[in-house]
Amino acid sequence: MRLKLLRHAPPLTGGRLAGRRDVDADCSDSSACAKMRRMIGDPGRVICSPARRCLQTAAALGFEVTGTNPALWEQDYGDWEGQRYEDLPDLGDLEPERIAAHRPKGGESFNDMAARVLPELRSLSDDTLIVAHAGTVRAALSLVVGAAALSFAVAPLSLTIMRRTRRGWAVEAVNLTAEAECSP
């Protein structure tokens, strides 16, 4: 079973953390959308986070969404929601396990979010494309690398591909962008 995870197109946040805020996506780069659509190929089932930015991205790529799943929402950043990125605390010096356990006031930790997302991913039995968030992609990667998944870059409109085998999960590709299609 192949799992393709597409992070939504760039969110229109005005330089502020979106998290659970329901913001639009900038799907205006039709060339990037077309290239990503070709990279994805046959998506199998298409499941989305119910976030507007994810549904807009799926529509811009011409995918018919077979369902939405609230468990796929981005991490709830609590009091950090809506803050400018430069005003957020820098947790970069913490070890990945401590970052994963950190819970912003009124929000959830990465571990909390992963506990919500991972049962949904484990329940999949057919090839599936999930259109969701950077946190959702990192939660999937944590199936293979644990809290170190927080160190992965997950650009807007990027594709991550995983495969479930008899021995567990394997990562085929991470953070593929439309520009990657043109690279040598």
Description:
The structure is a single chain. 30% of the residues lie in helices and 18% in strands. It has 184 residues and is an alpha/beta fold. The chain has one domain (2-182): Phosphoglycerate mutase-like (Rossmann fold). It has a six-stranded mixed sheet. Helix 4 crosses helix 5. It is globular and about 40 Å long. It starts with a strand and ends with a helix. 32% of the residues are buried. The mean pLDDT is 95. This is Histidine phosphatase family protein.
Reported for the largest beta sheet, the result is: 6 strands, mixed
The CATH architecture can be given as 3-Layer(aba) Sandwich
CATH homologous superfamily classification: Phosphoglycerate mutase-like
Shape field: globular
The CATH top-level class label = Alpha Beta
Can you give the mean pLDDT?
95
Distance, first to last CA: 28 Å
Please give the radius of gyration in angstroms: 16 Å
- CATH fold-level label: Rossmann fold
Order of SSEs, N→C?
EHEHEHHEHEEH
Number of strands: 6
Into which percent range does the helicity of residues fall? 25-40%
Residue share in β-strands: 15-25%
Structural class: alpha/beta
- What is the number of helical segments per DSSP (H or I, 4+ residues)? 6
Keywords: Membrane, Transmembrane, Transmembrane helix
Protein name: Histidine phosphatase family protein
Transmembrane segments: 139-159
Pfam families: His_Phos_1
